[in-house]
Design brief:
The protein has 35 helices and 25 strands.
Length: about 950
């Protein structure tokens, strides 16, 4: 009890961000002194429920000692299943409530908002039914008969002693009138959980402290030194103007100036009445990421936030963002010797070289709770990667599955944010992790209705925590902008409805929207940066011969073209046809069905060939890249000509952002072939000969007919053969997006019936998504004083970044992920034969993977880097079950050991020496050029 209380005090003083401390302190009469005292007291008494027969009966030898002191109890077997009605968290909640009510005159309504912290310290606050069931079985808390009074006396003595020891006794009278908001209850619960986990670590707090003679203070100090937990960020308000700020935080090109939208974002962050929500809408390539980080620094200085969480739509975008986050962190001013904990938050983070380098600087702290046992021996890379200062570390204790988000600086997939809106075990820890940070949400337009249901609920909680949030988008529908603002503002939006309606009516672009907690929205309309382009858009028949002929004509004198298809099947079919015309060397593909290491290599190759002029050292004279949606985001690539399947208009604009993205070498684009100096986008994937354009089936399956038809309607003025006008970027971005997503839109008369049918199907689909999402969605914060009883009732259990976890916050069919290895003719397994050597020159290809023991670390990591998500053909429930059954035939027992964290629990897909295999009725073929090809066997 003393250890947990002392740890809570240390965490409060040296680790907890001041924004979190202030949120709790604001509701207590004694301010921060009261808040600290309350946190320490609750941590000290959190295990009071162990002083009950239901808990004490578990170890006979100890129970006998207690019986010798008059604390009678039945044996564990005699008590049987009834014990489950009194888990020690719930028992402690009930005991504390009784003591507050009987000894200090509290009502049950007053006590519940405090006692629930004790009840929920194992991750799930008790439900009303659980409380009622235990109330009906008092013998689980105190054995009946003469012993009952002894049990009561012991329990009350413990509670009285803790109240006196931790300074709560003298404040209970003042706290009785407090109405503790649910966000404060959540944060206190999380703090108690963290304190409990640290104090329960035998490496830090030996079970037999008399073996090492120390005072209590010396014991705590030694444990704290052993934990060596990095403190939070203590940001200082940047001095100087915005230009100076950007020059010192980012590697700006010589002579580069701050763009108007960046200046507007920072100035709003500085001047809004209180840090809150900032929505930044600006074109692709306008520096929104830098604007967000600069605003985050200002927000952190003003609010006391202790870190940043940067949420991105995919693992690929997370990986791309992580080194940028590290570069920014290394430029932040910080006192000498200060260390920050940093995390890349997705399921394959350990394979990221930048994150692996940070792990090298971490020291070992053994796992605290049983949940972490499988992660206790995390691999540490021995090879050299980028240089990272020792002040940035991936702290070992914070790398556990449930604790990782508590790191100060985190870049990860948006799933990690959405999990905060999902009823799940230890949800309080996720809320604590977010409550102490500035949250940045990138690509806000990329989330469908299902994900938006969770995102809006998370925003409502972030608003309740007064967490500063920065939302970024190049193509945000106006209605969605209003929904985000309303979600964050909570009840204030209903009181200022007209002001929030104006958020949806704003048509300017770029646009920055600010919402301070409790205040009206503020709209800022910065000027465009000045650089723009006009893209000529035209139809092209969905015929591969027509496409090949057109590209042959367009690229007759050289040039680089990007062809974006909406499905992997169309990517591969297109690439095959184009190779017949242009040859293998001039056509490459990029899509999601490559193993992880090949996908990363392809991304790097695309940047080397088609990236910014300073980086693209190998730009070919003539080349065609055929890609899926992976080309829409995260890659800073530049092409002379774009061909795209019809897609929702916001995504079409993102694809256009890969067209003439950089000056080559100046605005005249004279380094491009003369025919390609005017940016052009050819739109295909549609039967344009029909009275109403008919998108191909694959596109409809991905996006739905309504979004595609509305996109076509918005683009019509630019597609008209006689009076077509170019798409002006960025001037037309907002107009096109609002046109495509407005509730009402003018459509050609002959299209009306088809569009209406598609609209009704779309509404039905959205309603179904919202209904499915609401099943496990967290409720909004209730009125102050209402206990968190049943907060995550009917939840999903644990939520984490696994395929099952991601499926809970994304409305997509569950997919299978496998690790690809090769099976030789002698039946032995090896890593695939085309892997390149690592940065130290060590061979990774063809390494043996013995099945009678754990593979060598280098071989196991090389195999794990060959993860592959199987395509949608395997997401059908029957096919998935058959595939899993066949994959589990290659179950290697030796790889399931604790020492085999790279391969344990993985499904293994073994390719033969021709890189082929069969699975669930499909023939699979893999190549480094085309990735995975799947056909019916």
């Amino acid at each position: 009890m003393e250890d947990s209380a002392a740890v809570a005090g240390r965490l409060w003083d040296e680790w907890l961000p001041s924004s979190v401390r202030q949120l709790i302190a604001d509701v207590l009469p004694g301010g921060e002194a009261d808040a600290r005292r309350l946190a320490v007291w609750l941590a000290g008494i959190h295990d009071i429920g162990k002083a009950t027969p239901a808990f004490a009966c578990q170890v006979d030898s100890l129970a006998d000692v207690m019986r010798g002191h008059g604390l009678q109890m039945r044996s564990g077997p005699a008590m049987g299943a009834d014990r489950k009605l009194a888990p020690h968290g719930l028992a402690g909640q009930v005991l504390l409530g009784e003591w507050l009510e009987e000894r200090h005159g509290w009502t049950r309504r007053q006590s519940g908002q405090f006692t629930v912290v004790v009840g929920g310290h194992h991750g799930v606050p008790p439900e009303h039914g659980h409380i009622t069931a235990l109330d009906a079985r008092p013998e689980l808390l105190r054995s009946p008969g003469a012993s009952s009074a002894v049990w009561r006396r012991v329990q009350e003595e413990l509670l009285e002693s803790c109240a006196d020891e931790f300074g709560a006794g003298e404040r209970l009278g003042a706290w009785r009138s407090v109405r503790l908001p649910q966000p404060a209850q959540v944060l206190l619960t999380a703090l108690v959980i963290v304190s409990d986990w640290i104090a329960s670590n035998p490496d830090l707090f030996p079970y037999f402290p008399e073996d090492v003679p120390r005072s209590g203070e010396e014991r705590i100090a030694a444990a704290w030194r052993g934990l060596d937990l990095p403190g939070g960020w203590q940001a200082q308000m940047p001095t100087g103007d915005v230009q100076e700020l950007f020059g010192s935080r980012f590697a700006l090109p010589p002579g580069a100036g701050v763009r108007p939208v960046q200046e507007a974002a920072v100035e709003l962050a500085r001047t809004m009445s209180e840090p809150g929500l900032l929505v930044i809408e600006a074109p692709m390539g306008e520096g929104k990421t830098e604007a967000a980080l600069a605003a985050a620094e200002v927000f952190a200085a003003r609010s006391g936030a202790g870190g940043v969480f940067f949420a991105l739509p995919t693992m690929a975008t997370g990986n791309a963002m992580f080194p940028r986050l590290l570069d920014w962190l290394e430029r932040l001013p910080a006192p000498e010797g200060v260390r920050y904990s940093v995390l890349l938050a997705h399921s394959k983070a350990a394979l990221n070289e930048d994150f692996a380098q940070l792990m090298r600087h971490s020291h070992r702290v053994e796992a605290v709770d049983l949940d972490e046992m499988a992660e206790a021996d995390l691999w540490r890379p021995s090879h050299s990667t980028r240089s990272a200062g020792p002040e940035l570390v991936a702290h070992a204790w914070l790398r556990g599955r449930k604790k990782a988000m508590l790191s100060s600086f985190v870049a990860g997939t948006v799933d990690q944010l959405l999990f905060a809106g999902l009823k799940s075990r230890h949800l309080a820890l996720r809320h604590l992790a977010l409550a102490g940070k500035v949250v940045v949400i990138d690509e806000a337009h990329a989330y469908d209705t299902y994900m938006s249901v969770y995102l809006d609920r998370v925003l409502s909680w972030l608003g309740a925590y007064r967490v500063p949030v920065v939302v970024l988008s190049a193509t945000l529908p106006a209605g969605r902008r209003r929904e985000l603002a309303v979600a964050y503002a909570g009840t204030a939006a209903a009181q200022q409805a007209a002001a929030f309606d104006a958020v949806a009516e704003a048509g300017e672009y770029p646009l920055v929207t600010a919402v301070a907690p409790g205040g009206p929205p503020v709209l800022c309309r910065p000027a465009a940066s000045g650089r723009g382009m006009e893209v000529q858009v035209e139809r092209i028949d969905d015929d591969l011969d027509v496409l090949a002929g057109r590209l042959e004509s367009e690229l007759a004198h050289g040039g680089c073209a990007l062809v974006v298809r909406n499905t992997v099947r169309r990517v591969l079919d297109t690439a095959a046809a184009l190779r017949e015309r242009f040859g293998d060397a001039q056509v490459s593909v990029a899509h999601s069905c490559f193993i992880d290491v090949d996908r990363a290599a392809k991304d790097a190759d695309l940047l080397r060939r088609f990236g910014p002029p300073a980086r693209a050292t190998r730009r070919p004279d003539r080349h065609i890249v055929v890609a899926s949606q992976v080309a829409e985001q995260s890659l800073d690539v530049d092409f002379d000509l774009l061909v795209s399947d019809l897609c929702p208009v916001d995504l079409m604009l993102q694809r256009m952002g890969r067209l003439h993205r950089h000056l080559r070498p100046d605005r005249a684009q004279t380094d491009r072939p003369e025919r390609l100096r005017t940016p052009r986008c050819l739109v295909t994937g549609v039967d344009w000969t029909q009275p109403v354009p008919k998108p191909v089936r694959g596109s409809v399956a991905v996006y739905g007919a309504y979004a595609l038809l509305r996109s076509a309607v918005a683009l019509l003025p630019h597609l008209d053969d006689k009076e077509a006008r170019p798409v002006r970027l960025p001037a037309d971005i907002s107009r096109l997006v609002q046109h495509a997503y407005a509730e009402q839109a003018d459509v050609p008369s002959e299209w009306v019936q088809d569009v209406e049918v598609a609209r009704l199907q779309h509404l039905e689909h959205r309603a179904g998504q919202a209904e499915r999402a609401a099943v496990f969605r967290l409720d909004a914060a209730a009125r102050p004083g209402r206990p968190l009883f049943g907060w995550v009732a009917a939840g999903v259990g644990d939520a984490d970044d696994t395929r099952q976890g991601r499926a809970q916050v994304r409305d997509s069919r569950e997919s299978l992920e496998v690790v690809v290895v090769q099976r030789r003719s002698d039946n032995t397994l090896t890593t695939v034969p085309w892997l390149e050597a690592d940065r130290d020159g060590r061979t990774l290809a063809g390494l043996e993977l013995p099945t009678d023991q754990v593979p060598a670390p280098a071989a196991a990591r090389a195999a794990a880097s060959c993860g592959l998500r199987l395509p949608m053909q395997f997401s059908n429930a029957e096919t998935m079950d058959q595939a899993i059954g066949e994959l589990e035939e290659l179950y290697v027992r030796a790889w399931q050991m604790k020492d085999s964290h790279w391969l344990a629990g993985q499904l293994i897909l073994a390719l033969d020496e021709d890189c082929q295999t069969r699975l669930a009725g499909f023939a699979l073929r893999y190549s480094t050029s085309d990735g995975l090809e799947v056909t019916r066997a």
